[in-house]
């Protein structure tokens, strides 16, 4: 049973920063893709940042490039998302997700496991 545990999030003023973290527990298959997605009220879910955990550079949505940084933690299947210069339009529920290979990191349909979500509010 795979479980994604997210932490971080909260409320910040515009221009502030937050850190999100996610760890996947119980995953025993081949090297996965992992990423962060978000959904604001009344809007569709969108990708924020994703990575193939076996190597390569992260992918970022255009709206967060230069402001958000995705990194892998020292523990296996752990992701960190550093969010700087936050804007009100970044307000959303943020979800961590994991996809078994073969996976295209940016394709949300590939992701089989999702966290419960953590709220980010910029106001």
Explain how this protein is built.
By secondary structure, the protein is mainly β. It has no helices and eleven strands. Strands 2, 4, 5, 6, 9, 10 and 11 form a seven-stranded mixed β-sheet that branches. The protein is globular, with a radius of gyration of 13 Å. The mean pLDDT is 96.
Shape: globular
Please mark out the parts with pLDDT under 50 across 5 or more consecutive residues, or reply none.
none
User: What number is the mean pLDDT?
Assistant: 96
Q: How is the biggest beta sheet arranged?
A: 7 strands, mixed
Quaternary state, please? Answer: single chain
Considering the chains and any ligands shown, give keywords for the structure.
123 residues, mainly beta, 7-stranded mixed beta sheet, 4-stranded antiparallel beta sheet, 11 strands, globular
């Amino acid at each position: 049973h795979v479980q994604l545990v997210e932490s971080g999030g909260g409320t910040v003023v515009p221009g502030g920063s937050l850190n999100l973290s996610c760890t996947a527990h119980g995953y025993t298959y081949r090297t996965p893709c992992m990423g962060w997605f978000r959904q604001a009220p009344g809007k569709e879910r969108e990708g924020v940042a994703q990575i193939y955990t076996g190597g390569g550079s992260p992918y970022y949505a255009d709206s967060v490039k230069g402001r958000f940084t995705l990194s892998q933690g020292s523990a296996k299947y752990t992701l960190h998302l550093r969010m700087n210069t936050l804007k009100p339009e970044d307000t959303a529920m943020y979800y961590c997700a994991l996809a078994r290979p073969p996976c295209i990191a940016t394709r949300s349909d590939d992701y089989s496991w999702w966290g419960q979500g953590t709220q980010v509010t910029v106001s």
